[in-house]
């Protein structure tokens, strides 16, 4: 199992690690700061430095608890000591977008009880899907206005862990329409925007809303009966 340092410190930009497995250009490490694709959030990219050689990390995937790092060429071997370095601008933008998505979905749920049916967070554009029968563009305009007002207040964002039993007491933690994933959880990692929203989540986030900057609504699509899709971005 790979130790996921990004769960403990989303702001750590580099770390040392040991190569524990090699399958061509796919590398396993004993620990990593690279977030894998998952939960709608795009993976991190960056570099591995070993023996004076730099290897680009182009994608990261999680399979059965192991984190597989795809690099751009052969050369690494089991036992090699590497220095992992994030593409920080990409990571920080994803952190800002992920916290922005929590803020938007939390406010939307408060106003309409809408369930979140999907999301995709990329550095340049993100989207959020939700189920809502009664819908008007004015609701979404108000949502973005209120979210940006809260950002100006720079409200703290906390991350902590609950047992599964503790978490299940609070239905507000699970805003996704499909809740099958809850059955497989043990401890539940919670991301809380103080006084605004809290959700079970395994992604990377900023420490306070002010870091988001501003959220911009790009467009709204209808994706079938009761299904809506909102595209948004955060300022550079």
Distance between the termini: 35 Å
Radius of gyration in whole Å, from Cα? 19 Å
Unreliable stretches (pLDDT < 50, length at least 5) are none
What is the helix/strand order? Answer: EEEEEEEEHEEHEHEEEE
CATH architecture of the largest domain: 2-Layer Sandwich
How many independent structural domains?
2
- Specify the number of helices: 3
Let me know the largest β-sheet. 6 strands, antiparallel, barrel
Briefly note the CATH topology name of the largest domain: Threonyl-tRNA Synthetase, Chain A, domain 2
Mean pLDDT reading: 93
Strand order in the largest sheet: 2-3-7-6-5-8
Q: Give the proportion of residues in helices.
A: 10-25%
How are the SSEs placed, and which strands pair?
Blueprint lengths: L2 E2 L9 E10 L2 E4 L1 E2 L13 E5 L2 E11 L2 E6 L9 E6 L1 H25 L2 E7 L4 E6 L5 H16 L4 E7 H5 L18 E7 L3 E4 L14 E8 L4 E8 L2
Parallel strand pairs: 1-4
Antiparallel strand pairs: 2-3, 2-8, 3-7, 5-6, 5-8, 6-7, 9-10, 10-15, 11-12, 12-13, 14-15
């Amino acid at each position: 199992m790979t130790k996921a340092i990004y769960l403990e410190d989303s702001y750590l930009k580099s770390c040392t690690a040991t190569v524990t497995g090699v399958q061509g250009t796919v590398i396993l490490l004993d620990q990593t700061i690279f977030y894998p694709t998952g939960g709608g959030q795009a993976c991190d990219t960056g570099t591995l430095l070993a023996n004076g050689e730099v290897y680009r990390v182009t994608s990261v995937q999680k399979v059965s608890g192991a984190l597989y790092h795809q690099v751009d060429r052969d050369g690494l071997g089991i036992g090699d000591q590497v220095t992992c370095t994030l593409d920080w601008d990409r990571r920080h933008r994803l952190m800002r977008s992920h916290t922005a998505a929590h803020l938007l979905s939390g406010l939307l749920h408060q106003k309409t009880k809408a369930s979140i049916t999907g999301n995709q967070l990329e550095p340049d554009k993100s989207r959020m899907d939700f189920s809502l029968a009664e819908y008007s563009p004015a609701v979404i305009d108000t949502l973005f206005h209120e979210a940006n007002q809260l950002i100006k207040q720079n409200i703290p964002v906390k991350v902590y862990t609950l047992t599964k039993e503790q978490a299940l007491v609070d239905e507000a933690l699970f805003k996704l329409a499909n809740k099958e994933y809850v059955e497989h959880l043990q401890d539940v990692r919670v991301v809380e925007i103080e006084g605004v929203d809290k959700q079970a989540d395994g992604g990377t986030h900023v420490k306070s809303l002010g870091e988001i900057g501003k959220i911009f609504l790009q467009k709204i699509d209808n994706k079938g009966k009761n299904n809506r899709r909102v595209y948004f971005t955060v300022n550079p």
